[in-house]
Amino acid sequence: MRIQKLEILVEVAKTGSVSTAGKNLHLSQSGVSQTITQIEEELKVKIFKRSRFGVTLTEVGSEIVKKSIEVLLKYEELVERARKSADIHSNKLRVSTIPTLITYLLKPLREFKKLHSNSNFEVEENATEHTLEIVQKNLADIGVICIYGENIKNYVDLDIDVILEGKMKVYVSSDSPFANTKTITTNEILKQSVVLYNGDYTKYFINNFQLTFGILNILFSSNNISELTRIISSGFSIGFAPDFAMKNNTYLLEGKIAEVDITDYEPINVALGLIRPKKKQTSKIEEHLIKFLKTELHCHLS
């Protein structure tokens, strides 16, 4: 029996309608009906009860459809396995990452490329929410995201590994009095001018902060981290960022800006995570890349 016949059988069982199954599979109603008849004749059993309201499964039909679903899942697994067992060096890997980490990923990806010279990489900068969506839709193989609040709650089809855990910090000029005390209160934050990075977690944090303590004096937001840290270093404003995202920031390393703790507000914890689809068979090269990225990111950001 051909796989297509089983797909038709399962679709009719799922929809309870020959015509609807035909539309979903882009087949004629008569073609679907003939296929069901052929299956029943081949197996010598009645799988469906027909009525003017549609079709329902017989007792033996329920068992056959159950087994058919198992066969189709095994077939999909077989196809995926065959695809993945192709030459490990000929794979194309798609990585989606939050923009703040692109500088940390480029070096390890270059090193990985040397080890797998015939592999091709596509690296996209995307916000966490968009990365979650495209990895779930298999439009990217691996994603690097921020995990906070309940932002991953509805993504049950993804495998999620936490690489690092962190906290939101305030960043000020090294000339600021807060740089000496290493602390700042929520009331003091409200008196400052603020520049913001345009990231999902930052927006989430700021929204919760303002709901709790009041409106911030936000000058502007931007995706340009270098420009934001330059403005902070000038003493013109303060900024916010997860501590791991700033670990190797040039302005911080050179002492031009300082990291400060909020004393009277426990920021919503944030973690750096690596995601991939659960249902997708992971190839050897993907496994290698995942381990490589986890090691490199942990090394550079912890």
Structure in words:
The chain has three domains: 3-84, Arc Repressor Mutant, subunit A; 88-165 and 270-301, D-Maltodextrin-Binding Protein, domain 2; 168-262, D-Maltodextrin-Binding Protein, domain 2 (3-Layer(aba) Sandwich), CATH 3.40.190.10. It contains twelve helices and 13 strands. It has helices spanning 3-15, 18-25, 29-43, 59-84, 102-115, 128-136, 177-181, 186-190, 200-213, 225-233, 250-253, 284-301, and strands at residues 48-51, 54-57, 92-97, 120-125, 142-148, 158-166, 168-173, 183-184, 193-197, 217-222, 239-242, 257-262, 270-277. It has a five-stranded mixed sheet, sandwiched between helices. It has a four-stranded mixed sheet with strand order 8-12-7-11. Helix 1 (3-15) crosses helix 4 and helix 2 (18-25) packs across helix 3 (29-43). The protein is elongated, with a radius of gyration of 27 Å. The relative contact order is 0.14.
Features:
D-Maltodextrin-Binding Protein, domain 2; five-stranded mixed beta sheet; Arc Repressor Mutant, subunit A; four-stranded mixed beta sheet; elongated; alpha/beta; about 300 residues
Low-confidence stretches: none
Q: What radius of gyration results from the CA coordinates?
A: 27 Å
Number of domains: 3
CATH homolog superfamily of the largest domain: Periplasmic binding protein-like II
The strand count comes to 13
Mean pLDDT across residues: 88
Helix count equals: 12
Provide the helix percentage.
Answer: 40-55%
N/C terminus separation: 56 Å
The shape is: elongated
| Fraction of residues in β-strands | 15-25%
Strand-pairing-aware structural class? alpha/beta
CATH topology of the largest domain: the name is: D-Maltodextrin-Binding Protein, domain 2
Sheet with most strands: 5 strands, mixed
Q: Which architecture of the largest domain does the CATH hierarchy give at level 2?
A: 3-Layer(aba) Sandwich
CATH class category of the largest domain: Alpha Beta
Strand-and-helix sequence, N→C?
HHHEEHEHEHEEEHEHEHEHEHEEH
> What is the spatial order of strands in the main beta sheet?
4-3-5-13-6
